[in-house]
Specification:
Elements (H helix, E strand, L loop, with lengths): L5 H8 L2 E11 L10 H18 L4 H12 L5 H4 L5 E7 L2 E7 L6 E7 L6 H5 L4 E6 L4 E6 L4 E4 L8 H5 L9 E4 L7 E4 L5 H25 L8 E5 L1 H10 L10 E2 L7 H30 L5 E2 L2 H9 L3 E6 L6 E5 L4 E5 L7 E2 H11 L3 E3 L12 E5 L10
Parallel strand pairs: 5-10, 10-11, 13-17
Antiparallel strand pairs: 1-2, 1-4, 2-3, 5-6, 6-7, 8-9, 12-18, 13-18, 14-15, 14-16
């Protein structure tokens, strides 16, 4: 599973040039639709050629720019190993490609910078999260999104209680089982030991699991405050919560012994819990916008938002993902021009707002349909009040 760390978006946003090509298309993992994917790319290549011609690009340069993407058309092996979406980025001296767990609308944009708006839901809507599925006999750790899940094998995390305690308690062999199949109620048995001693062994086991995970998470390049969902019987979850130090552990986990649960089943059970957390965060942000919308600390005027995003004045922005507002921005003069239709060298002002808000540490929401907090294609809460006359 190819996830999209924030650093990739930061890197792509720094590319600039007269001919920056961005392509997005939906792809398929299996089925007859796989055969249509290269046709979609071929159509996008034709559109890219037209846009390059409108910019008076020499034919030899057009062929050179489009060549890396054209070579993919006949690569059958390439098309058999796709995810839900494919994003391609090309300049005269770079070519980057990402198979991503999100379907895109077919789109090509040629401008002086990459068009990155379709990637934002992967960062702010399709939340990365973790699942720790464990029992006495088995420990599994996953990273997941709404659509994909991947098991991670972490050095330092024991695979079972016996493995964790084999050097601590060589003579003690605890057995763990459920009262009845599917009951999910654990019973612990030792050899002449009391309940406190058994809990002590379980606690030491889970301490080792937690310590191993923390060592890994502390090395991860920005885990982006990824939530952690526990999957275990309730009693083991309770003990793990007592030893846990990860700040983004969710209060509600998946109950029951997960040893025979398939990864996809775990993902499906965990996502609603993560989604609820996201929805709460979104609602709190939207409530703040409605509270401030009649003041100088909130706005939905596109031209003002473009300059505010560039200047790092936006705290939170909402951008309609299916809208495109073509135009130009001159940050030095403060001039923002908006066009009814795309013209050569135009950029999508919504993309400009989203990218610069992100680069300046703000939060970007891209709600679908009628979930925008305003009828405008963009709205924002500023970090501080900005009188209208200051925007110019």
């Amino acid at each position: 599973m190819q996830l999209l760390p924030h650093s990739v978006l930061q890197s792509l946003s720094q590319h600039s040039g007269d001919r920056a090509i961005s392509m997005y298309l939906p792809t398929h993992i299996k089925g007859a639709e796989i055969q249509q994917d290269p046709i979609r790319l071929k159509n996008l290549l034709s559109e890219a050629e037209e846009q390059l011609q409108q910019l008076d690009t020499p034919e030899s340069e057009i062929r050179k720019l489009l060549d890396p993407m054209s070579k993919l058309l006949g690569d059958e092996e390439f098309w058999r190993h796709q995810s839900q979406g494919l994003a391609l980025f090309r300049t005269s001296d770079s070519f980057e490609m990402y198979r991503l767990p999100r379907s895109f609308d077919s789109l090509v944009v040629v401008s002086d910078r990459f068009h990155l708006k379709p990637l934002f839901p992967l960062l702010f809507e399709d939340q990365l999260f973790y699942i720790l599925a464990f029992s006495q006999n088995k420990v599994r750790f996953f990273q997941s999104t709404r659509y994909q899940i991947e098991e991670m094998h972490i050095e330092g995390v024991p695979n079972s209680l016996d493995e964790a305690l084999q050097y601590d308690d060589p003579e003690k062999q605890l057995q763990y089982h459920t009262n009845s199949p599917g009951s999910g109620q654990p019973t612990y048995h030792g050899q002449g030991t009391g309940h406190d001693s058994e809990n002590s062994s379980i606690r030491r086991f889970l301490n080792k699991v937690e310590h191993g995970l923390q060592s890994h998470l502390n090395r991860v390049e920005s885990h982006q405050q990824a939530p952690l969902v526990l999957a275990a019987v309730d009693e083991l979850q309770a003990i793990y919560r007592e030893v846990n130090t990860y700040p983004y552990l969710l209060d509600k986990g998946i109950s029951g012994n997960p040893d025979v649960t398939e990864p996809e089943e775990l993902r499906e059970a965990a996502w609603p819990k993560v989604e609820t957390l996201l929805q709460q965060s979104h609602q709190e942000a939207e409530n703040k916008y409605h509270t401030l919308k009649s003041t100088d600390q909130a706005d939905d005027q596109l031209e003002r938002l473009a300059l505010a995003a560039y200047r790092g004045q936006i705290d939170t922005v909402w951008v309609a993902p299916s809208h495109y507002c073509w135009g130009t921005v001159d940050p030095q003069s403060g001039e923002v021009r908006r066009h009814d239709e795309s013209q050569p060298k135009d950029l999508d002002l919504l993309d400009f707002i989203a990218v610069h808000t992100f680069l300046n540490g703000g939060t970007v929401y891209m709600p679908e349909g009628d979930r925008m907090p305003t009828d405008a294609p963009a709205a924002a809460v500023y970090r501080y009040a900005i009188p209208t006359e200051v925007h110019a």
